[in-house]
Amino acid sequence: MTGSVVADGPLHRTEHEITIAASASEVYQLIADVTRWPVVFGPTVHVEHLERSATRERFRIWATAKDEVKTWTSVRELDPVARTIAFRQEVSQPPVARMGGRWRMEAVAAGRTRVVFGHTYRAIDDDPDSLAWIDEVVDRNSRVELAGLQSAAERGRALDELSLTFEDTVRMAGPRAAAYDFVREAAEWPRRLPHVARLALTEDEPGVQVMEMDTIRPDGTVHTTRSVRICFPQEKIVYKQLVPPALLSAHTGCWLFEETGDGVAVTSRHTVVVDPEAVPTVLGPGATVAEAQEFARNALSRDSMTTLLRAKSFVERARGAAG
């Protein structure tokens, strides 16, 4: 993997490239489908489409930038024939004043593709410290994203076989706002949920939460996770584990809140990607990917159902108090 930076007055241009053992069409499809980015690209937390067609799309994206979570709106022009994708940030976040670029996929040999990932950007007021921060973030994230792209592309269809999405739903006879508050107020979980030993939560931007949580497993051991959560008031809370458990290469999820005739239905949905190299280490020699998926599903559903049932009691008590 290589990277380079060229200064053109206040405008900076960078290029990072990598050669991947997969066809150009396969690589293109992974980059074109931003809905898969949270499980392919480490920095991407969540993507929400605003407009979408075969050749043009607008979306809002949340991603990590060093120790911060940034969000912006991007426009992309897709050319599946030339296998290029041009992008520009329609709404950027400080210290970025302008950001755009292009993905380019080139077949270099049978089953091998050269990927060139270019950026063009400026800092607000052309501030040198801000520009240095952007340089570092673009370089770090580009390298991580290209490595993630390589891993996903070289697994090919196995990526789908390694992935699993599942959910649990509980209906609650009470207000949707109370259910949403129970999940949003994660700082209260250590006293509300028996499997949460410690939780540290920060919310520097309204609705963007970073939390570190110690979870007690059935055997008494403690597992620490660090996640980013994006809150959409009373509608949903989406999240991504920044460092997934040893068995997984990715774990994302969401909490959904849907009003019903007599209350609210709350759903906990998970998407996991098993790390096949970790399966024998975590589960023992001879363990299969299917067994790893079942193990992850059982563990995550157990904690989700505990949370959902405690939320149900909270919501229905709130309804009784209001009545």
TrEMBL record:
Return the SUPFAM superfamilies for the record: Bet v1-like
The signal peptide here is: none
**CDD domains xref list:** OtcD1_ARO-CYC_like (cd08861)
* Superkingdom of the organism of origin: Bacteria
**Name the record gives this protein:** Aromatase
Species of origin: Streptoalloteichus tenebrarius (strain ATCC 17920 / DSM 40477 / JCM 4838 / CBS 697.72 / NBRC 16177 / NCIMB 11028 / NRRL B-12390 / A12253. 1 / ISP 5477) (Streptomyces tenebrarius)
UniProt lineage = Bacteria, Bacillati, Actinomycetota, Actinomycetes, Pseudonocardiales
